[in-house]
């Protein structure tokens, strides 16, 4: 079958890597597992041996046909032939109220999928994901690290992250240009900080990282809309940062989650 590069298709061939991922997941007979992008079923077949139910989401119709032929007669297998970015995860896992996610993600949309999964974290307790190694570094980058960005703040706020192991390109066919890393994300019961308006908070973080090479001050100067108005009401970006106890010469990548929260509080307090 022709490999579709546009769908990020790199299929796992290495049995040892497959076994390590399954061990990391350790599926239980009483649970539902959601697998995103099952491909030919490299992980699916072991998941089906051990999990109570496996819901596989595959966008490629040709692969869906392969999967149906291979696993269609298993009572605990369900296939959803849809785009994983456009699904309501809490709805598809019903009647279960909580499921775990396993995926060797297509690299081109991996961060978008992670963000989508985090949105539905109320019903997705844990995720074992394989992504491009550099993306995982960005996900777990602490304040002060060069790789720190919006994604790192997002993961820190909503998940406990654990890097599990790296996977070399030779474990896949076709062979990708990059290394991969398997990561475990556990959804936190509550956001790690308390903010009264999460949507406002994330718009602020996005503005802070708008131009990575600039200082937080320069990025805040460019803020528009509701956040720009709050900054103006406080007395401008210099005053806003001073009230939050943040040196205006710093860059967004140096801010801790708590500092982002402090800045958001200053601006939220000034909101009409
Ligand atoms: N899990 C398989 C493996 O490890 O061999 C395949 C992994 S491959 C990196 C990514 C898989 O995700 C492919 O099967 C691809 O068709 C599928 N895929 C790509 N974009 C998708 C999307 N938006 N929704 C669902 N599946 C998608």
TrEMBL record:
UniProt domain Ribosomal RNA adenine methylase transferase N-terminal: residue ranges: 17-189
Protein EC: 2.1.1.182
Cited Gene3D superfamilies: Ribosomal RNA adenine dimethylase-like, domain 2 (1.10.8.100), Vaccinia Virus protein VP39 (3.40.50.150)
Source organism, top-level taxon: Bacteria
Subcellular location: Cytoplasm
Catalytic activity: adenosine(1518)/adenosine(1519) in 16S rRNA + 4 S-adenosyl-L-methionine = N(6)-dimethyladenosine(1518)/N(6)-dimethyladenosine(1519) in 16S rRNA + 4 S-adenosyl-L-homocysteine + 4 H(+)
Annotated GO CC locations: cytosol
Main location: cytoplasm
Pfam families per record: RrnaAD
Binding, S-adenosyl-L-methionine: 10, 12, 37, 58, 83, 104
Sequence similarity: Belongs to the class I-like SAM-binding methyltransferase superfamily. rRNA adenine N(6)-methyltransferase family. RsmA subfamily.
Name of the protein in question: Ribosomal RNA small subunit methyltransferase A
Organism of provenance: Pyrinomonas methylaliphatogenes
Gene name as annotated: rsmA
């Amino acid at each position: 079958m022709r490999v579709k590069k546009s769908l990020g298709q790199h299929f796992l061939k290495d049995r040892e890597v497959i076994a390590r991922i399954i061990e990391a997941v350790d599926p239980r007979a009483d649970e539902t597992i959601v697998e995103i992008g099952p491909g030919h079923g490299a992980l699916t077949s072991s998941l089906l041996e051990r999990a109570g139910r496996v819901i596989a989401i595959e966008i490629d119709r040709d692969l869906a046909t392969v999967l149906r032929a291979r696993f269609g007669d298993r009572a605990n297998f369900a296939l959803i032939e849809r785009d994983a970015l456009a699904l309501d995860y809490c709805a598809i896992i019903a009647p279960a109220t909580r499921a775990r996610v396993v995926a060797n993600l297509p690299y081109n949309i991996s961060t978008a999928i992670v963000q989508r999964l985090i949105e539905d974290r109320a019903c997705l307790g844990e995720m074992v994901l394989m992504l491009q190694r550099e993306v995982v570094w960005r996900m777990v980058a602490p304040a002060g690290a060069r790789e720190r960005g919006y994604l790192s703040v997002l993961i820190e706020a909503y998940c406990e992250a654990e890097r599990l192991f790296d996977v070399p390109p030779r474990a896949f066919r076709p062979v990708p240009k990059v290394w991969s890393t398997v990561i475990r994300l556990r959804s936190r019961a509550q956001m790690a900080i308390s903010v009264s308006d999460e949507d406002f908070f994330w718009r602020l973080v996005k503005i802070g990282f708008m131009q990575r090479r600039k200082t937080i001050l320069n990025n805040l100067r460019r803020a528009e809309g509701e956040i720009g108005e709050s900054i103006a009401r406080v007395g401008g970006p210099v005053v806003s940062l001073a009230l939050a106890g943040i040196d205006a010469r710093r860059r967004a990548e140096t801010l801790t989650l708590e500092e982002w929260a402090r800045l958001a509080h200053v601006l939220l307090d000034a909101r009409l």
